[in-house]
Design goal:
The protein is built from three helices and no strands. The chain has 149 residues and is mainly alpha-helical. The longest helix is centred in the middle third of the chain and has 41 residues.
C-alpha cells in the first residue's frame, strides 16, 4: 500500500502504469477475471460500433437542422411582418376621420289631383272631327265616366 501511495504522490497511477505486473487473484484492478471482462467489453463494442453515427451522418443531420431553422425563422419573420402591416392598416382606418356620405334623396312628385285621361291623343266623344279628304271618321271609344272625389 505504501508503494501505491508513493506512486500517486509522484503523479504515476498504478492503473495506468504499464510496467506494473498483473497479479493473479486479489482485488480489482489487477484481479484474475480481467481478461474475461475485457473480452466481453470488446464483443459489446464490436456489436455497438456499426450502429453509431458516422461523420457523414452527423453532417446530414446538421444540414437538416440548419434548413429547418432557416425555414422556421423566415416563417416567423413573415408572420410578424404580416401582423404589423395588418395592425397598421387597422389603426390607420380607425384613426382616419369618417367621411360622411351625403344621403340619397329621392323626390316623388305630388299625386295629381285629377288622374290623366286614358288614350290621350285618341278621338274622344265630344271632340270635333275634321274629316280629311277621303277619310272616314274614327271609331269612338266609349268610357264610363269616373266618379269625382
Amino acid at each position: 500500500m505504501t508503494n501505491n501511495v508513493s506512486n500517486i504522490r509522484k503523479g504515476v497511477s498504478p492503473v495506468n502504469d504499464a510496467s506494473a505486473p498483473l497479479a493473479g487473484g486479489g482485488d480489482p484492478p489487477h484481479d484474475g477475471g480481467m481478461e474475461h471482462r475485457v473480452t466481453a467489453l470488446e464483443t459489446r463494442l464490436d456489436t455497438i460500433l456499426p450502429t453509431l453515427a458516422t461523420k457523414t451522418d452527423i453532417e446530414g443531420v446538421r444540414s437538416d437542422i440548419n434548413r429547418w431553422t432557416l425555414g422556421t425563422v423566415l416563417t416567423i419573420i413573415g408572420v410578424v411582418v404580416a401582423a404589423v402591416i395588418g395592425l397598421n392598416t387597422l389603426w390607420k382606418s380607425a384613426a382616419a376621420p369618417q367621411q360622411s356620405v351625403a344621403p340619397v334623396v329621392i323626390q316623388i312628385p305630388a299625386y295629381p289631383a285629377q288622374p290623366p285621361k286614358a288614350n290621350i291623343g285618341a278621338f274622344q266623344p265630344g271632340d270635333k272631327w275634321i274629316p280629311a279628304s277621303g277619310s272616314t271618321p274614327p271609331s269612338v271609344i266609349h268610357q264610363e265616366p269616373k266618379p269625382s272625389h
